[in-house]
């Protein structure tokens, strides 16, 4: 059911790769809620072709840009502002990638070139997007910017590797830039810390199936899926959340407040009894 929450708003969405992507679901919902969209992803993602389907479905323009490349981002913002006829109202940063995770290297034996790439793609790209948006004065007053994070920024979850460091930086960027952009233009900047979710990026995490099961058992409301995440992000783009800024907002069914649940304890009891 749509509520017209984004009627008349225009927004730029990074990171829709395929229909499992959180950004894909956000784009669908934003379109349903009346927004006009401009979609972007890395050039390599375009070659897979699926994002064209989303563009057609949401009547959006597509523009390839590597979010680590300043020139690409500048051209992207120019193209989006041309399309929108000026400033716009929201940005979703839904970008993450770790070559160390991809190559299966463990945190105590990572490759530092890869580590820098992880930080650049998954965290610095958010700063670059914000810095260029500000320099180009691309956002309307009270615009809303959201990036996606994970609880590994606060707590150690085995297997999440250098992405944990990237998420910690991402959340800090939201606070530091949120102050500057808030004072100047009332632009709000938040991160949404989402449950583990089956997507292309999510599936790369070591032990993802077990992590999903554990997290689901630990969360009183269960894991939040990509569509539920999209619903939450839409509220943050809407005018109903105008004074929310510089926050890391957990969208995780309660996981981040838990220590041990009955459901997880029962599972642990079972395996404990099996031990000789
Ligand atoms: N899936 C999960 O379990 C989970 C949980 C919490 C947070 N998140 C975060 O959600 C966000 C979206 O991930 P997802 O799970 O939807 O997976 P996804 O694989 O669908 O999306 C990741 C996107 O990042 C894009 N990308 C990678 N390098 C890029 C670059 N250089 N320039 C531009 N785009 C680039 C990819 O093309 C892809 O579209 C990420 O920040 C991820 O860390 C995911």
Using brief descriptors, characterize the structure shown.
276 residues, alpha/beta, Rossmann fold, seven-stranded parallel β-sheet, 11 helices, 48% helix, 16% strand, globular, binds nicotinamide-adenine-dinucleotide
Q: Could you explain how this protein is built, in words?
A:
By secondary structure, this protein is α/β, with parallel strands linked by helices. It has one domain: NAD(P)-binding Rossmann-like Domain (Rossmann fold), CATH 3.40.50.720. Helix content is 48%, strand content 16%. It is built from eleven helices and seven strands. The chain has helices at 22-32, 43-48, 50-58, 70-84, 99-102, 112-135, 163-185, 200-203, 208-218, 226-237, 262-274, and strands at 10-14, 36-41, 61-64, 88-93, 139-149, 188-194, 248-251. The protein has a seven-stranded parallel β-sheet, with helices on both faces. β5 (139-149), α7 and β6 form a beta-alpha-beta unit. α4 (70-84) packs parallel to α6 (112-135). The longest helix has 24 residues, at 112-135. The protein is globular, with a radius of gyration of 19 Å. The termini are far apart. The model has no long low-confidence stretch (mean pLDDT 95). It binds nicotinamide-adenine-dinucleotide. Nicotinamide-adenine-dinucleotide (NAD) binds at residues 14-15, 17, 21-23, 41-42, 45, 66-68, 94-97, 121, 148-150, 194, 196-197, 199-202.
List the helices and strands and how they pair.
Elements: E1 10-14, H1 22-32, E2 36-41, H2 43-48, H3 50-58, E3 61-64, H4 70-84, E4 88-93, H5 99-102, H6 112-135, E5 139-149, H7 163-185, E6 188-194, H8 200-203, H9 208-218, H10 226-237, E7 248-251, H11 262-274
Parallel strand pairs: 1-2, 1-4, 2-3, 4-5, 5-6, 6-7
Bound molecules: nicotinamide-adenine-dinucleotide (NAD).
Nicotinamide-adenine-dinucleotide binds at residues 14-15, 17, 21-23, 41-42, 45, 66-68, 94-97, 121, 148-150, 194, 196-197, 199-202.
